[in-house]
Amino acid sequence: MLSLLKDGLLEVLRAVGPLAAVALLLLVTLVDASAAVILQFIVGVTLVVAGMLLLFSGIELGILPMGRFIGSELPKRGSVLLIIAVAFGLGFATTLAEPDVLVLASQVDQASQGAIREHAVLYVIAVGLAIFAALAMARVVYGFPITYLLGAAYLAMIVLSLVTPTEFVALAYDSGGVTTGVLTAPVVIALAIGVSSVLAGRSAVSDGFGLLGFASIGPIIAIMLMGLMWA
Q: Are residues 187 and 209 in the same domain?
């Protein structure tokens, strides 16, 4: 446990350190911030480091093993529908808890002055990712090439981009990006690797990966459809 925390702290410091150093330099030199603002920034960075350390440790200790274990056990139940339903449920639940998604939904609500409600954006993104995660898991089970799914999804995305109101197109593409965060990515990838590792003729590398990239298209299409209905 101590080794995990030590390694995690070094990783977090390597990630946050350069950003904190540049921001602090700008505060001191270019912006000429007050001592109170600089102190507030330092306290904030300290809290970020502590939070990220606990988050990554929790993912390593609990989230990843959970996803792999559930994924490896599901095929033993002999139900494809169960596998697809679990993929949908986990995709939906983790997206609702994804910090990046929560921030985006909140910012949309504020920027639109309440015209586009936070919870509407949040649930549309979650449903979009969950549906595509379920489709991607079905691909792992049945073994057909992911290129078919990607081709159809990107074609639909391009067509919708041409007819969806501009403000929703911009929001849609950001929605796809924020779903590949610290909660959704580990769960979805670990689940896919777990399922593919126990299915005959499947590869944990070629079948276990690619699911997240495909699933992130779901929120893009879902938000565009939301925009068309909104218009």
A: yes
